[in-house]
Write a structure and sequence with these properties.
Structural class of chain A: mainly alpha
Number of strands of chain A: 4
Strand order of the largest sheet of chain A: 1-4
Strand content of chain B: 15-25%
Structural class of chain B: alpha/beta
Distance between the termini of chain B: 54 Å
Radius of gyration of chain A: 23 Å
Largest sheet of chain A: 2 strands, antiparallel
CATH superfamily of the largest domain in chain B: P-loop containing nucleotide triphosphate hydrolases
CATH topology of chain A: ABC transporter involved in vitamin B12 uptake, BtuC
CATH architecture of chain A: Orthogonal Bundle
Largest sheet of chain B: 6 strands, mixed
Distance between the termini of chain A: 36 Å
Largest interface: A-B, 51 and 81 residues
CATH architecture of the largest domain in chain B: 3-Layer(aba) Sandwich
CATH class of chain A: Mainly Alpha
Number of helices of chain B: 17
Helix content of chain B: 25-40%
Number of strands of chain B: 22
Number of domains of chain A: 1
Oligomer: heterodimer
Strand order of the largest sheet of chain B: 6-9-10-3-11-12
Number of helices of chain A: 13
Order of helices and strands of chain A: HHHHHHEEEEHHHHHHH
Strand content of chain A: under 5%
Helix content of chain A: over 70%
Amino acid sequence: MTDRQRDLVQKFAALGSLVVLVAIFSFTTPAFFSMGNGMTIALQVTSLAYLGIGVTCVIVAGGIDLSLGSVLALAGVAAGLTVKAGMPVWLGMLVGLLVGSACGLLNGLFVAVLELPPFIATLGMTLVARGVALQLTGARPVSGLGESFGELGNGALFRVVREHGDDFPEVVFPGIPYPVIVTLVLAVVVAVMLNRTRVGRHIYAVGSNSEAARLSGVNVSRITVYAYTLAGFTAGLTGCVLMSRLVTAQPNEGMNYELDAIASAVIGGASLTAGGIGTISGTLIGAFVIGILRNGLNMNGVSNFIQMIIIGLVILATVWIDQLRNKRSSRVRVLSVSKQSKQTSETLQSSGKPNPEPKRGAQ
Amino acid sequence: MREPTAPRRPPSPAGDLLSVSKITKRFPGVLALDGVDYSLRPGEVHALCGENGAGKSTLVKIMAGQYAADEGTIVYKGVERRFSSTTEAQNAGIAIIHQELNLVPQLSVAENIFLAREPTRGPFIDRAKLRADAQLYLDKLNLDANPSALVKSLSVAKQQMVEIAKALSLDAEVLIMDEPTSSLTDVEIDKLFEIIRSMKAQGVSVVYISHRLDELNQIVDRVTILRDGKRVCTEELGRLSIDEIVAKMVGRKLEEKFPERTSKPSEERILEVKDLGRSGVFENVSFDLRRGEILGFAGLIGAGRTEVARTIFGADPKSSGTLVLNGRPIEIRSPIDAVDHGIAYLSEDRKGEGLALGMSLASNVTMANIGAVCGKLGFLDFAKEERAARSAVEALEIKTPSIRQIAKNLSGGNQQKVVIGKWLFRSSKVLLFDEPTRGIDVGAKFAIYKLFDQLAADGIGVILITSELPEILGMTDRVAVFHEGRMTGLLETRSTSQEEIMQYASGRKRMDSLTPGRR
């Protein structure tokens, strides 16, 4: 099996499980497979998708970002407070995006310049960002932001409503919610960035082998900072959209969202151990797997606690399957390489530094 | 007592503590050992000499149970043995001291010496006994180190001594020392030799590998010389001079392995390196590289050749010196600067530093010059990328099912060609190639040599770091020889020989004034 085929299998495995989920839930709950519920799921998945897209970039670059849930809260609060202070809504949203990006930038600098382990750097940011959000608001929600603040989160494109003259207008077509449109745009833009631009290629290169990338003249620090900043931006976006949907800025919003986002990326095939592996399409599928599981289980009346257990098990199973897959594919390689690596380690020892000496072929 | 032996007598088990015969060991594409005989008498120090890659380390690893021989027998104490692990060999009384330190830095000296053999009292480690026992061996070695000190706090030389203490504590009858003196000072070496002599007196036999040939006559009784995986000879040390040993180590005939050099270096200097140094690693390295020249870097492993190249490339920081490119001084702080200036470095560590193993052949080829396959709007142009990858595949004769093949699934030689392709695609003025033909089959080597000649003919300056002296003699115009962090010679390839290069490489000869540019 070639790598390409394997890649397709992985993708179809995730996609297949998605189809199976939909089939099961459609069977158990007739209301599941409906336009209305479809929109609900799409809307629910959006925030997961934004964060998933952001964290995928970081994971592909060989890092991890644990701070996204807190950063989105801080960004949303910043947006809310700006609007509360009398600024226009667009400016508030811009502030939210900038705050998110700035947090990501800091994460990137911690990792690339201070050379902190990504886990630690972003763990620190988790506490700091959440703390600032709580401190700024006194841990109270910021409400009374006006109807226009809710437009981004609750509005829809092509919404068709027929007025009957009474109090209950008939919704002919619910429209495509703005957050869903934003998801599509973001996914396409980032996917194109990753696959079709030099920055994207460099992100993969840094994640795949940062030393090889460095020795090829790739600015590894800059690429790392860029990936984290992009993740921060998606957190800022998530914060704005979420708070807009609630029409309230909630400093406690987004707890553990980053974990769901990481899970989406991993279900979609991103590798936390290797780096350089992961796709936006895969992550979107992963986000839908989690979103549909949540929605379907909810509609079947499965309690929140049981849901946590099921989703936890799904994540474990997915990653385990992925490991098996990697092991199998690498075992083939190891068989052919093992002797060679033995030879390398043999020569390593005769040289006393990582400097394998050559074996001269028979002349 | 040693009985006089006729030279080249096949080793017989009688009287020998350990004897191996007809040992053959293959690695993919390489015959590392080819029917080698070697024997060890009780209380003898028997040196193994040979160039890098001659098979010394492979042979001792087979004796120590680390590798299994493909063919051949090992007779130890009159019984045919086949050790399946180092532990088994250790228990039988054969211990090996690796040149590479095999210590756990976070553990103490005592804990390292008795790792996995800790004295216990019930379920607990008997710490007092552990320390006392360790002190015993440290005293034997006259090593001034606290048994409770963490190994990482010790100097490299002291760590090496701890390694030796560990081997002593095994009470081995056969002690294999692979380059034990490489990081020791003269005083410590003297101490080590004293210990070896006293062990000899107690009947312990030592297999001794060292690049420092001058050491041999202090302790060695016999010497076996290996070349290209074959035994050249086994002699009493007294019958050979050091120069004869060197000659036998390298005494290979040059065959038609190299294409004719068509290019001629011009007088124009493309790169001048002046007093380049990196503290603690190498110092005062000065040379110049001409347009169209292939300059070889020769030297033993650890001489600092790779380090000099990495420093020129900005991969490691320099502590002194200047670089002049095309007559203009340049400052290189990182590989990014170097690549911008048209300097390329092909790392000797293909997998660790050369390739992004998880990425495709095409992505690897374009990695250093991704801008060249981008369209006007800055998006990757896959058609351009494919052309770039295809031309690399054709020029270097890379065997691959597709240019989208993931690099890790290519064979070693083809992987190396991909890395070379990466730097060819980024047209450079100066190419630093570090062991570019390692692990590549002969036919592919020839293609790469032709390519070097072509590059030089195109006016590129090529620095070729290689441990293969024939490659130096066959391909280079001049050769810079390094020994222990210093450049000891800058020779015209035409008028030098393997023997002369080895003299400089082992530090036996050294040019007093090396002025770059003067021939």
